[in-house]
Design brief:
It is a single chain. By secondary structure, the chain is of the alpha+beta class. The chain contains twelve helices and eight strands. Helix content is 48%, strand content 14%. Helix 8 packs antiparallel against helix 9. Strands 1-4-5-8 form a four-stranded mixed sheet, covered by helices on one side. Strands 2-3-7-6 form a four-stranded antiparallel sheet, with no helix packed on it. The chain is globular and about 75 Å long.
Length: 389
């Protein structure tokens, strides 16, 4: 499989690195510290960092020039996201790489003119309002309802696992406008400001210590102009945004493997000529190969996007590989560290600064966040292999 990284992309990467190296150290360190604490919750310094990138023209790498982007390919966008993650800096991945491109495909001229410049400027942050308490993995079973009232819709319902809702400016909301039995064909997609009257957010703290949220919508009035696409036609926007989102899972495993390698090397576990050292060397080598496979999955999807294709099955492959690989790497780290591995992030005695312990605690989310792995396997079977439903 070709990597598709050529001279032009390497020159872009060198330019990006030079730009990041030239930013004020105080801004970089503040954004990095905040992002390392919880990368899913961009706050004051992360927002300031993203706004600086936006002002300097570094957000929306692959966006068309007509929307203020650099007009580069999704490959450069992928390299951009990977480089920032490698430096533990916020990259605005979800909003820039998922919401923005979906708006370009399906938004009205007014929506594009209003929202895209603010997204590219680092001013807007979206949370995803899909999952519901009683729907499980079946998004088509959602019950949050939007009822037309003049030039508005009135929305009532509840969303859960809405990561980022406590800091987001807007909610990308799936709600039912058709009959319950219509399932996918009765869903509409809205953009709702998080400060709209009737929205309340309740924290849910996960096993890994990250914050996600439940979002309650009580008679929330949403202008009809905030609907993406046609009434009852929101499923297309939902699936498009999910495919864009899944395409950029790639770099956390690479970073976690580096934490494991640095810790094991410092302890001398990779040295020597005994059976245990040889076994660990083999395991680390397998992880390194798997990380590169993960990068190739992402690059293949980026190449398809650059060619105007939709990587349905490829995005699902990448998502499954990414989550399961991260769990394997962190599991190896905890096996090696033994009892010390139970020391949590924040303690000076935690192996690998506690990143591997934290990663393993967080790993159950990776199997259903962004779409459960079981559903992804169905997509691979039907959309990728052509198997019957």
């Amino acid at each position: 499989m070709k990597t598709a990284i050529g001279t032009r992309q390497l020159e872009f990467l060198a330019e990006l690195r030079a730009y990041l190296d030239g930013l004020e150290p105080e801004l970089i360190e503040a954004a990095r510290a905040e992002n390392t604490e919880d990368p899913m919750q961009p706050r004051e310094h992360g927002r300031r960092f993203l706004k600086r990138l936006g002002a300097d023209g570094w957000l929306g790498i692959s966006w068309p020039r007509e929307y203020g982007g650099q007009g580069r390919t999704p490959i450069e966008q992928w390299l951009f996201a990977e480089e920032l993650y490698d430096r533990r800096l916020p990259n605005g991945l979800l909003t820039l790489n998922s919401i923005g491109p979906t708006l370009m495909l399906m938004g009205t001229d007014g929506q594009k003119a209003d929202l895209l410049p603010r997204i590219r400027g680092g001013e807007l942050e979206f949370a995803i309002g899909y999952s519901e308490p009683d729907a499980g993995s079946d998004l088509a079973a959602l019950r949050t309802r939007a009822v037309r009232d003049g030039d508005h819709y009135v929305v009532n319902g509840q969303k859960i696992w809405t990561t980022g809702a406590s800091v987001a400016t807007h909610l990308w909301l799936a709600a039912r406008t058709g009959a319950q039995e219509a399932r996918h064909r009765g869903v509409s997609l809205f953009i709702v400001p998080m400060d709209a009257p009737g929205i309340s957010v309740t924290p849910i703290i996960t096993q890994g210590g990250e914050r996600t949220n439940a979002v309650f919508l009580d008679d929330v009035r949403v202008p009809a102009s905030a609907m993406i696409g046609e009434e009852n036609g929101g499923w297309e926007a939902v699936t498009a945004a999910l495919n864009f989102e899944r395409m950029f899972y790639h770099n956390e495993a690479r970073w976690e493997l580096r934490q494991l390698e640095e810790w094991a090397s410092a302890r001398g576990l990779l040295d020597g000529d005994d059976a245990e050292a040889h076994m660990l060397q083999v395991v680390m080598g397998e992880h390194a190969v798997d990380v590169e496979i993960c990068r190739l999955f992402a690059l293949r999807g980026a190449r398809m996007l650059a060619a105007g294709k939709v990587p349905y099955a490829e995005a699902s492959m990448n998502k499954i590989w990414w989550g399961e690989l991260r769990q394997r790497i962190c599991d190896t780290g905890l096996d090696l560290s033994g009892e010390e591995g139970a020391i949590a992030t924040g303690s000076e005695y935690a192996p690998a600064h506690g990143h591997l312990e934290h990663g393993l605690q967080s790993s159950p989310v990776w199997r259903f966040g962004g779409g459960t792995n079981e559903i992804q396997l169905d997509i691979i079977a039907t959309r990728g292999l052509g198997l019957p439903r």
